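In the previous lecture we treated proteins in isolation. Real proteins rarely work alone, and many bind small molecules. This record shows how such a complex is specified: first the sequence, then the SMILES for zinc ion.
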Amino acid sequence: MSNDKTQTEITADNSRRGFLKTASAAAVAAGAVGFGLGLANNAHAASPTPPKEEPKKHKLLLIKNVNVFDGVNDKLLMGMGVLIKDNLIEEIGKKFTVPKGTEIIDGGGRTLSPGFIDIHAHLQLNVGPYEFLSAPMDYHGALALWEAKNTLMRGFTSMRDVGGSVWGVKRAIDEGFFPGPRLICSGSVIGMTAGHGDYRTVNTFPRQLGGPAETEMERLGMTYFADGVPEVLSASRTVMREGAAFIKMFVGGAVSGVYDPLDVAEYSFEEVKAAADEADRWNTYLAVHTYTDKATMTAIEAGAKTLEHCNLITEKTVKEAVKRGCYISAQTGVYLSPPPEGFTPAQVQRQQEAADGLDNLLTLCRKHKAKVGFGSDLLASLELKELLPTEFTNRTEWFSNAEILKQATSINGEIIALSGPRNPYPGKIGVIEKGALADIVLINGDPLKDITLLEDPNKNLALIVKDGKIYKNII
Ligand SMILES: [Zn+2]
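The predicted 3D structure, ligand included, written as tokens:
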């Protein structure tokens, strides 16, 4: 099966049946080649040959006649062309002389933007809590592949996965077997006993008090339980061994937690600092799940760099985050959408409490020019994940269209870059500039004037390019 065939099917048939057809054919091809290699080499890690063409030397793609939103500036660059060489942006300009054989797409005056980035996603979490704990592990992998393709088709060419195990899914996407966004992952989240990651029953003893070596949440790669500095260090090193791009820690109560209402501050300063320092030694950073002033201030002082959620923090904490150069990784849709099935009354109430905090948080962020990330945190249901594009329009209550688009592109790109040498995709994303990675969407219309266009990606995204490869073209 050639890559062209895969791309044609993605473009022409975005239906569930179409994807399954493509996926199962790819799986058969991959399996056949994979077993062959495995037997021949007697090596488990030899990657099978992905179903794609040999890359052509210096493949050139020119997208001409477009207005460019470069991810940084509020104004469009009118009547431009963007030349892509292999997987990088080679040139942006008005006039080009291109060699024979250059693929040319006439953008017809559409808006060209950097591909969008979801800075807070959980690709592994596609079903409710009971199903998550009880379904076979490879079922989660299969759904993650399905959702990865949907995410890319919504124009999101990168996802920062802030909790869960999608290492195999990431590898299969990166190797070209399946369509999907770039995945920048934390792997398992470090969580304390009775903290956000703890979905064990009260009858389960923690490990160090004679409990089982590991439980479902650990086996599924969702949480590493760690209490005390030595265990936090061990957990931090374990996620780095898995290939984490950054370390994620639960430092406060959660909407969906079992034992920890939102007011709880989880972990001592020393424990959080142990994780932040370990991240620093790996030249990356610590991201923390947090809602309140107390939990957030501890994390900021301990050295955390991205503060996830933050709905209940007050002005002094927003100012401190800005002063220390931290990013506030906010979400709206997950709080404003209906509670997922199976939520207890207490969880529904906490969701409301978090939703009520949004206005204060985002108003303060705007007032103090905090760097706000663009993330979804939609989870536990594939239907809910379809709401990802509404994150653009939800934010218009607090931000201008240009600010929102910058959050989803260049600001999120800055967050990805915090991983430094641990970023699995060296290169710049979230911007249209010479030398940046060629992740691009072409929009029917001008989202700076009308951002609601982005709520319907099927109709309004005419072209999706990731890493220089075309995944959708309906021009
Ligand atoms: Zn989350």
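Summary for your notes: DSSP finds 16 helices and 17 strands in the chain. Confidence is low (pLDDT under 50) at residues 1-44.
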